[in-house]
Specification:
The structure is a homotetramer of 134-residue chains. Chain A contains 3 helices and 6 strands; from the N terminus they run βααβββββα. With 134 residues, the first copy, chain A, is α+β, with helices and mostly antiparallel strands. Chain A is elongated.
């Protein structure tokens, strides 16, 4: 299992007229969180892409328990539980930093594709890096 | 069952460096689609809010089959299959207009809340309007 | 002079906790408006790009007079006043459809570049199309 | 003069199909930068709002010199040069951290309004805090 905490901060740009973060913005926080999780274990998205691979999302899912507000500091707990065969699943839990309230849970599922969008097996380097930390 | 087709168009703002619509933008298309579906059956989001209700999302979900591209015209087929008791589920299928390719499927689940975010039963007017078209 | 009216509609995704459209969203309306203006005079952004050109923004500017609100229908009046030599300037005025209130004025300035981002003269086809309608 | 450096990081969500940050995203970086500049001198946007004031943007402006790319670390140098009478002008310069290349310059102009959007003089506390650091 790989576990990582990404920290972010809510600004006006993300908050709607209910005074809470608009529902699709959490997916932007998830993207930043998984980019940093991968970097931390030695996997760089740009390197993946210059090697001829893409890692698009094939499933996205969120459960909203409570709304993050303007100026909230958030913790995005990001977890990979299983080594990917074809699909890579990443799970997220968003907490408000100051009171540790759980606000949102979610996950994304990814596949590797070539430049033409055809699904392919994960590159060996990727699996190698992942294996080292599991 | 209520069924509605919302049309939208992909601009640069939504497309990422893979040349496809960034994964969380479909949720913006879904929001526009459900707003128009509700309007079509006589339900106005502003009226809901001035009556003291909000209709936040509690679940969002997407499956990505193929990526929409810059300048694609999209059809967002939007469906309510069941009258809501507490939760309102809305389903979406996104097609590329020109070749009818299915690109994305998804759903959102909503609850009514009062101004303080406390879940409440759907307002009677809302159920009344929905009942008329089911 | 070329003049075009683009219509758009404000949804939740664009509205902030002041209850008005977040200030950078008008630039997304501008992008859609200029894409449609160009299409109307026979210029297709995708064709420009497959010919090896890009048309990035080098200046963006907005004056905010009054805030658009959720569910407002907007008219984006879009104007090209001068044939471009190196720079293409496009001007925008955003009106609320129902009361014709002027909400925002702005402009963007563009240059043509090659794939490497080097500024180049506008392609002949582009000038030809523009000349036809001026 | 008040000067502040805000650091941010470019993720996929901000990058378009030219492979550079979409032109309106810099305004989101500016918003975060000015929020943090104000916080640093003891001014909290939420406190402003709970005191009955808003601080909307009345002008936004950007000059784009070079495009930020995915995974770039950016420095947003943020400056207030003059004590506001009615209008508060904030200037921004965006640099790529690794090579100090200047990418974007811009500014925003703000006024204080009451809850109804009517322009008012800056609150005394705000001027007091600003005066202390000028």
């Amino acid at each position: 299992m790989i576990r990582f905490e990404y920290n972010t901060h809510v600004y006006y740009k993300d908050v709607d007229q209910m005074g809470i973060v608009y529902y699709n913005r959490y997916y932007e926080y998830f993207e930043a969180a998984r980019t940093e999780l991968l970097r931390k274990i030695g996997i760089d998205v740009t390197t993946i892409e210059t090697s001829g691979y893409y890692l698009p999302v094939i499933t996205s899912h969120c459960e909203y328990l409570s709304g993050a507000k303007f100026d909230d500091r958030l913790i995005v707990e990001t977890v990979i539980r299983e080594l990917p065969k074809l699909k890579l699943k990443i799970e997220y839990v968003v907490y408000r930093e100051k009171n540790k309230e759980k606000l949102v849970t979610g996950h994304t599922i990814h596949v590797f594709t070539d430049k033409n969008g055809k699904p392919v097996r994960p590159p060996k380097d990727f699996l190698h890096q992942l294996n080292k930390v599991f």
